[in-house]
Each structure stands twice: as structure tokens, then as C-alpha cells.
Design brief:
Blueprint (H helix, E strand, L loop, with lengths): L17 E4 L2 E4 L10 H5 L3 E10 L2 E5 L1 H15 L7 H14 L5 E7 L15 E7 L1 H5 L13 E5 L22 H12 L4 E3 L14 E5 L5 E3 L9 H12 L4 E3 L5 H5 L2 E6 L3 E8 L2 E2 L7 H14 L10 E3 L3
Helix pairs in contact: 2-3
Length: 323
Amino acid sequence: MRCVILRAVATPETPDRRLWIDGEWVPWERATVHVLSHSLQRGSLVFDYMSIHGTPRGDAVFRLHEHVERFLLSCALVGLPLERSGPELESAVLDTVRANPGSTALKMSAYLPSVEVDVVPVDDRVSVAIAAYDPVADILARKATRAPFKPELRLWIEKERRNRRSDILPAQAKVAANYTSPMAAKWKARQAGYDEIVLVDEDGYLAEGPTTNLFLVNAEGELCTPSERNVLLGITRRTVIELAKHDGIPVQEVSLEPQALHDAAEVFMTGTTAGVWPVVSVDDKTVGDGRPGPVTIRLREHFERVVSGRDPDFEHWLSYVER
């Protein structure tokens, strides 16, 4: 009988990309775990998401070191016994970008792949997977329907306080389980016709978006953002704060009542994918004159110069990928 060897071929549903998984290269379509794996069933997967930018010196990962530091912190907060070091992970990230030309984003995940019975795994081996890809070409373009990207946002403020117990994981951990409640809240906002939602904490103060951080410019021209206590420590958030201080824009990290958004002269969100993302209305109330304000534009343009390698003062934030 003739033996036929079948090779997986990239199709419109299968990007032609390779993932780095525990030091091995795995084709996109074979990068799978069991449906009963611990991290899927218990939400224990830890991840971080990075952006890749074209510069005059070639592709570069933005603030790679800081992203890996946050990834290791998330693993420690969750209790995942990850044995790989920061420098080892940084090297693997650059190898993955090098192996996947044309990538604009990278996601690194740490997870428990074993099938388990109890909430505490018997097999506590942690796998690491690193995927570099183009979200638009490799994922969104393959969807039958997809929401178009909007350059400006209609924002809705969450109307119910979050009940964050002291015995659950802190907001600073980028772990899968922490995104279930924000997902449900954003889904509800989308169904009501809004683009994004800003969550409130258990005390009723403004917190963040499901995957973004919040900024506003008050009547005095000060840039304000919620304090670190109940928000993810976003790398883009930190970047914008540092750029604002560099540019002489006063910054406050402070508890903010929802009314502060309604009174704001400017509002924007920040995130790895979005960069600096202007908000034109909050709860159907127009922000300013309904267009991005001068502080928002200034910070957005400065951020874009930095990530594209056109600001020598911040070139140290770029990790270049040598081909």
C-alpha cells in the first residue's frame, strides 16, 4: 500500500506563520493545547502583548524589556512557576519576529498545558508560546465580518461599581481570568452603540478600559489619569506619562470621579495596539468641539515619532531586529 504524507499548507484560514513554543518552531495551525488543559479551564494563562514598528534601522519591538518585566511580574502574581529568565525571553521574542517577517504585533503566553482535575495542578510545568503576526492580515481579514477600526471613540462610562474582593488577583496581573468581566462590560457597551467602555472601581472612581488606559485633560490644561491602585500598569500608559513630562505637560495620577470625564476638555485612551486614541464623546456628550484636542494631538504625534525611531531621545525604548 502506498503511503501518502500530508503536509499542512497555509490557506486563507491559516496564516503562514511559525510560533516559538518552549524553544521549538511550531506552524500556526499546529499551535494547540488540549480543550481540558488547566489554563483553558481555570483561566490561568498569563500573557503580554507588544508592538513591532518599522524604523529607518529596520523592524523594532517597542519597550521589549518593560513588557518582559511585566510578563514575569504577572507570572509571579498568579503563581506560575516559570523557569525562563528575562534575557532568555527577550532573545526568543527577537528570534520570533525575525522568523515572521511583516509582523506588527507579538503575543507571549505562559500557560499550564496539562489536563488536570483539581484547581491546583499536579503537573505544574509551564509552557511559553510566542507568536509574531499581523493582526489585520493574519486574523481580521480572515473573518467573515469584522468591526471597522474607528480613529476616534464614542465612550460609555460603566454605571455599576466593580466588586473587587481583596482575595482575588490584582488588576496588575495580565492573566486571562481578569478579562472576563471587562469583556462582558464592553460587549454590553458595543450592543448599545458605543465603541469603548471605561470601567469604574469598587469605590466608583474611573479605572480603565478593558484593554486600554484612560487619560483626560482638565479645564486647567493638566493631563490626568487614574492612579495605579486599580488599573493595569500599561506600557503605553507609562510611555505617555513620560512623554508628557518631557514635553512640559503637567501630569496627575489621581482618583477621578465619573463627572471628570463629562467636564474634560480632552479625553483619550492608550494601548499597545491603539497608541494614543482620541475620544470624541462620553455618554453621548461631546468632548470639547468633537475633535481631538491639542494635547491629544501633540502626544499622539510624539508617540508616533518615538515608535517609528524618529526621536533620538527615546531610541533606547526600541529593540531592533537584526535580520
